[in-house]
Design a protein that fits this description.
The chain is α+β, with helices and mostly antiparallel strands. It folds into 4 domains: 3-159, Tetratricopeptide repeat domain (Serine Threonine Protein Phosphatase 5, Tetratricopeptide repeat, Alpha Horseshoe), CATH 1.25.40; 170-346 and 407-429, Neuraminidase; 435-523, Immunoglobulin-like; 525-640, OmpA-like domain (60s Ribosomal Protein L30, Chain: A). It is 25% helix and 28% strand. The N and C termini lie far apart (81 Å). 39% of the residues are buried.
């Protein structure tokens, strides 16, 4: 607290004394106690809070009736976030003279709320508001706002009882955190690399990285290459494949406003020179806090550009087919408010978006919220993350690992090594994103074994929504995230080749492993054959299940793109039951697929259906896994 703030407190005390004092008289305080109090004021001129607290303790020890010293102690304890001691000092003051200290029910309520005692905080504010002689409009407005926030907190706790949740942030250690501020953490998909911003010498913002070892996070070092400059590089987002970095830079020669978004590419020598993302993304105002979707197709960020709904809004740009970013789109009033909405973070599940806002109901300042993507790519109603993740103070950016449980954020807690440090904690169950695994591999030409740039899609079998779509790199490599909790079709396409299909059935199971799938696509030619792995039937039935539509529509697309192609649909079963029955079942299943294609305007003359029953097994019928592989539908090109 500077001298100006100290004087404000003193004048405030005087106002209270003149207006309400009936018992307390500062003139009756012991002289020695007043001397300690005066010296404490002098320490505050130098912003020496620790020394001032020591002197104030001596003042109240010398004369425990010294209300002004108790009130000053309460204020300073609050500044250093020792909220329990602050509350203790306020309560001592109230016990000495309830009239003299009446208006201090407001900061007292704030300290109670900081401890999570929202019911007591609400009672203190209500007590103060019940006094008819408070005419200060600014104080009344502040009290009304706090009443609203404390009431929200009380109601939230009633509606979200989770007595078993323990909020215990852990400092990630001296490998990452220093006396300088560290913030904006982000993590690689495998949780082995941490990237963050450090404000070196409290001036120059640069990017640093640390690797996870058996002993914790290793000593961080600046990102290699040309990414860091003598200027400020702040908020950043790194693609899940580690090849693209988007960040905020200030006042560069090629910028459109004071803060713009730039990108850099990973090269053998490190990160490349940064390139401005252009006028579709940047404006002549503040543009910052980027977050890239896991498939690198959506870029979320915060902006104060003209035309928004509030001070800062959250926008998204979509990647166009030509590789450029499309125009920025405001996420709209379902997320943005008349206040400040910022710090977007899209989890690797590509379905759960977290952000901060002071416009939605909350605990008083910027709170953390989340929304989930629903059918049609709309968003659910924002949900407050609740106490103790949200508090009466400002909450900042949040990063959540692929496990959906471990969160990282920056805070200046009591055990920080400087100002802001990076901490990790466990999310409460009801606010977690979907746990996310991943699939990676290489796509090649089956004949030449050469890398084949292709499109890889993950599609929700229930809703037919594309969850993620990525392009392989020039070497055919891909990495695609795989949220658990749903059943997916997994497809790979390249023009002139038969598509590859597979599935990941994760609705009722949650595996812990990741997947490696190297895929060889077959050129479109006579007798080329693929297994249609996402054609589904109930046991001993031949009616197509709704989940089959994703795969069937892929087949329709292939036939429309190749109008001279003729195909054979072949049905197979396992060896359970009578061979004759299996033969009939396999024929009917093949016919069901052909019927669907005809209904989609594919000429019947281009289609043949055959059933082979339990013949031609491709796996061991003595195991359930083998029998599942033998129950299949195949497609073969018979004319092209």
């Amino acid at each position: 607290m500077c001298m100006k703030k100290w004087m404000t407190v003193s004048l405030f005390c005087l106002f209270v004394q003149l207006g309400f004092s009936q018992q307390y008289d500062p003139l009756n305080i012991k002289k020695k106690a007043v001397e300690y109090y005066t010296k404490a004021q002098e320490r505050m001129v130098d912003n020496n809070i620790v020394s001032a607290i020591g002197l104030l303790i001596q003042a109240v020890q010398t004369d425990n009736r010294y209300i002004d010293a108790h009130l000053a102690l309460a204020s300073l304890y609050g500044q250093i976030k020792n909220h329990s001691k602050s509350v203790e000092q306020y309560e001592i003051s109230f016990s000495l003279d309830s009239n003299y200290t009446l208006l201090y029910k407001s900061p007292y309520a704030f300290q109670l709320a900081a401890l999570g005692q929202f019911d007591k905080a609400l009672a203190a504010v209500n007590e103060l508001l019940s006094k008819k002689h408070i005419t200060n409009s600014s104080l009344l407005n502040k009290l009304e706002e706090r009443k609203k926030s404390f009431q929200f907190a009380v109601d939230f706790e009633k509606n979200h009882p989770d007595k078993n949740y323990v909020f215990a942030p852990q400092n990630v250690g001296s490998g990452v955190n220093t006396a300088d501020p560290e913030y904006f953490p982000s993590l690689s998909l495998d949780a082995q690399q941490l990237v963050f911003t450090r404000r070196v010498n409290n001036y120059n913002e640069d990017f640093y990285t640390s690797q996870l070892t058996d002993k914790g996070w290793a000593i961080a070092s600046p990102l290699k290459g040309n990414i860091n400059t003598p200027g400020n590089e702040a908020a950043q987002t790194i693609s899940q494949d580690g090849e693209l970095l988007i960040f905020t830079a200030r006042d560069r020669r090629d910028s459109y406003g004071n803060y713009d978004l730039y990108y850099s590419l990973m090269t053998p020598k490190g990160w490349s020179d940064a390139v401005n993302l252009g006028s579709n993304v940047n404006s002549d105002q503040w543009d910052s806090q980027p977050c890239l979707s896991p498939d690198k197709r959506d870029l979320y960020f915060a902006s104060k550009r003209i035309g928004g709904l509030g001070g800062s809004d959250i926008y998204v740009c979509h990647l166009l087919p030509n590789g450029k970013w499309g125009p920025a789109e405001n996420l709209g009033p379902g997320i943005n408010t008349k206040g400040d909405d910022q710090c977007p973070f899209i989890h690797v599940d590509n379905q759960t978006l977290y952000f901060t806002s002071n416009g939605w109901p909350g605990y008083g300042e910027n709170d953390l919220f989340y929304v989930r993507r629903s059918v049609g790519h709309s968003w659910t109603q924002p949900m407050n993350l609740g106490y103790p993740i949200n508090t009466v103070n400002d909450e900042g950016t949040l990063f959540i690992a692929a496990d959906g449980v471990t969160a990282y954020y920056a805070s200046d807690r009591s055990d920080s090594k400087g100002s802001l440090d990076i901490y990790s904690f466990q999310l409460r169950k009801d606010i977690r994103p979907f746990k996310t695994l991943w699939v990676k591999g290489i796509v090649t030409d089956k004949k030449t074994q050469q890398p084949l740039p292709s499109t890889v899609q993950l599609i929700d079998l229930a809703t037919e929504e594309i969850i993620t779509e990525v392009q392989t790199d020039v070497n055919g490599k891909y990495l695609i995230t795989l949220p658990v909790g749903k059943d997916y079709a997994f497809t790979v396409d390249h023009k002139g080749y038969l598509f590859y299909s597979d599935n990941f059935l994760m609705l009722n199971k949650s595996p812990d492993s990741t997947y490696q799938k190297n895929i060889a696509l077959q050129p479109i030619e006579l007798n080329a054959t693929i297994v249609l792995k996402n054609i589904f039937f109930d046991v001993n039935q031949y009616e197509l299940k709704p989940e089959s539509k994703v795969e069937l529509d892929k087949l329709v697309q292939l036939l429309n793109e190749n109008p001279t192609m003729k195909i054979e649909i072949s049905g197979y079963t396992d060896n359970v039951g009578q061979a004759a029955d299996n033969k009939i079942l396999s024929v009917n299943r093949a016919k069901a697929v052909v019927t669907y294609l005809v209904e989609k305007n594919i000429a019947a003359g281009r289609l043949t259906a055959k059933g082979f029953g339990e013949t031609n097994p491709i796996a061991d019928n003595n195991t359930e896994e083998g029998r599942a592989k033998n129950r299949r539908t195949e497609m073969k090109i018979i004319s092209h």
